[in-house]
Amino acid sequence: MDRPDAPAPHPLSGDSIAAALDWWREAGVDCAFVDEPQRWLAEPETKAKAAPAAVKKAPPPEPERPRIGGDPANWPQDLAAFRRWWLEEPSLDPVGALRLPPRGGTGAKLMVLVAMPEETDTEMLLSGPHGRLIANMAQAMGIAPEQLSLASALPRHMTLPDWQALARDGMGEVLRHHLSLAAPERLLVLGTDILPLLRHDPAQASPGIQEILVGDRSLPVLAGYAPAHLLEHARVRARLWQQWLDWTDDEER
What we know:
This protein is of the alpha/beta class. It has a domain at 78-252: 3-Layer(aba) Sandwich (Uracil-DNA Glycosylase, subunit E). It has 7 helices and 5 strands, in the order ααβαβααβββαα. It has a 5-stranded mixed β-sheet with strand order 2-1-3-5-4. α3 links the parallel β1 (110-114) and β2 (148-152). The longest helix is centred in the last third of the chain and has 19 residues, at 234-252. The N and C termini lie far apart (131 Å).
């Protein structure tokens, strides 16, 4: 608290202020310092608010693919009706494409299953060189023509079938239904591409002897290479023949 008898301070004159500044300048201090940071640049102008980013819409789900063959409840229940259905059912193949039915009756001693009709087939399944190879094999196996049935996994010849897509869309169920109606004693599969339709484990070696469940029965299966591959490679034919002998050895004893 100021004392009442204290003298009043003298106001600073311009000369006094100039003299003080000169004193500090000679002492090397020519700037003023403050503790609080100061902004030297002008405040930036307020930026316009950015437009909100457009929300990416999720692509619409792909429409569900129709099952090949349609409702299994409507599938034919005998082999003769299946042959007609095989030629007429739209979901099996585009309308107008040439289809060929399987050959042979119910309960054949051996069914030979190939991927598709030969490219030159026009009136009958396996009427070309692949069919002649299979006929010669059956004769060597001691199987009469009436004990042999011939079938294809697809109703017509195709250049590059997508076997995985066919299996996913239900072609395997159609094939197994065909096998249950035909009820062969044994099945010889010529073509490893067909195996996914039969629920074959891809981790296993493709050719070989195995069994598949068809309906309520176990069907013995020998899987080999396609007829075109067999025709080109004598060693592969010899291996298939040895597998056949091993496969049928117990039956002949």
